[in-house]
Automatic annotation (TrEMBL):
Transmembrane segments: none
InterPro entries: HTH_LacI (IPR000843), Lambda_DNA-bd_dom_sf (IPR010982), Peripla_BP/Lac1_sug-bd_dom (IPR001761), Peripla_BP_I (IPR028082)
Pfam family, one: LacI
Alphabetically ordered keywords of this record: DNA-binding, Transcription, Transcription regulation
HTH lacI-type domain residues: 1-55
Protein name: LacI family transcriptional regulator
SMART domains: HTH_LACI (SM00354)
GO MF: DNA-binding transcription factor activity; transcription cis-regulatory region binding
Length: 339
DNA sequence: GAGCTATAAATTCCCACCCC
DNA sequence: GGGGTGGGAATTTATAGCTC
């Protein structure tokens, strides 16, 4: 049943029915109740396409992820999306996930907007200099960055304190007696990797240790990257006594690589993985020490709330949220070998 | 084939009507 | 006269159908 048919059933205009159902104050309570009851009885639901046409909104928000990033196999990303979807669904907003080749991301953002498919965006995996953010800022499209960038004072964002988290990891290893700590990190064009590198340097500096650039190993943002980094570090003439992986994708590969080299954790080398080993990995049972960003689903809720705040016109500086990561003890940090 | 018109379904601005 | 109530018409974009 459509609006026209419902209006014929009730003997009221389409206007009155629409306003009664949408909570307008200039409809009497008696008429509203009558309309609501008839809508329930006849199973009336506004036609979504027509509604979107009339209000000029898609009532959907988008996430564009580059193909090959591995996000859809990432339990943390999926948990965040789950939380985001739950919160948006309660507001009758859909979450549209679009994949795009990395070189075609901006075109995908543009296409979804032009076709009226989304009203706003969540921008994941922010980069220090991020053309997606520059584009959305120019187009004046509501968006929330999931992560910060170098120039993010005037945008809404949600992030974890990556620098503090990595400094915390280094402090834990120092406390266990390690002085020779390596970092395996994702490309520092990604903002989180840049901040975690700063945290690593800050952690050493706080302990009065000199910078150890030879212990900083850049890797591809893949499990293979972590695996190769394990070999690079541990097959060198003087391997480190401890390693921190700056994310769980690299971390899984790193731990697999260390085990394949016949090394014992923590007797031969101590390991901390930022974000931890995902529960769906066979390596999860090792109990790898971690820096954790608790409750990804709540992060999704927060992102939805920030986007809502943006569309309600709240000031941007009230829409910048930084959560603190925590240290999760495990069984892969011990005293340095030979100690 | 080009150009114009009608139509779809819902929202919403503006206004008319009714009754106290 | 004014508040409460409800209706007319414009609006949105894509598309089918019609005329020339």
């Amino acid at each position: 049943m459509d609006l026209k048919q419902l209006s014929q059933v009730l003997g009221l205009s389409q206007t009155t029915i629409s306003r009664a159902l949408n909570g307008y104050a200039d409809v009497s309570e008696r008429t509203r109740e009558r309309v609501m009851a008839a809508a329930r009885e006849h199973g009336y639901r506004p036609n979504g396409a027509a509604r979107r046409l009339a209000v000029g909104r898609s009532e959907a928000m988008g996430i564009v992820y580059p193909t090959g990033s591995g996000d859809l196999g990432d339990p943390r990303f999926l948990a965040m999306v789950g939380g985001l979807t739950d919160r948006c669904a309660a507001r009758n907003i859909d979450v549209l996930i679009a994949s795009s080749p990395p070189e075609g991301e901006l075109a995908t953002y543009e296409r979804l907007l032009r076709n009226g498919r989304v009203d706003g965006y969540i921008v994941p995996h922010t980069r220090r200099s991020d053309p997606r953010i520059d584009y959305l800022r120019t187009r004046r499209v509501p968006f929330v960055a999931y992560g910060r960038c170098d120039d993010c004072q005037d945008i809404a964002w949600f992030d974890f304190d990556n620098e503090a988290g990595m400094a915390l990891a280094v402090a834990q290893l120092l406390r266990a007696g390690h002085q020779d700590i390596a970092l395996v990190h994702a490309p520092t064009s990604l903002n989180f990797a840049h901040q975690r590198l700063l945290g690593y340097q800050r952690g050493l500096q706080a302990a009065g240790l000199p910078p150890q650039p030879q212990r900083v190993v850049p890797a591809e943002f893949t499990r293979v990257g972590g695996y190769q980094a394990a070999q690079t570090l541990m097959q060198s003439a003087r391997p480190p006594t401890a390693i921190v992986a700056d994310n769980h994708v690299l971390g899984v590969g790193l731990v697999r690589g260390l085990l394949d080299l016949g090394l014992r954790l923590p007797e031969d080398v101590s390991v901390i993985v930022y974000d931890g080993i995902p529960a769906d990995s066979p390596l999860h049972s090792l109990g790898v020490n971690a820096i954790e960003q608790p409750d990804a689903a709540s992060a999704g809720h927060c992102l939805a709330d920030l986007l809502q705040g943006l569309t309600e016109g709240r000031p941007v500086d009230a829409l910048q949220v930084l959560w603190q990561p925590v240290y999760a003890p495990g069984r892969t940090v011990g005293p340095p070998r030979g100690a």
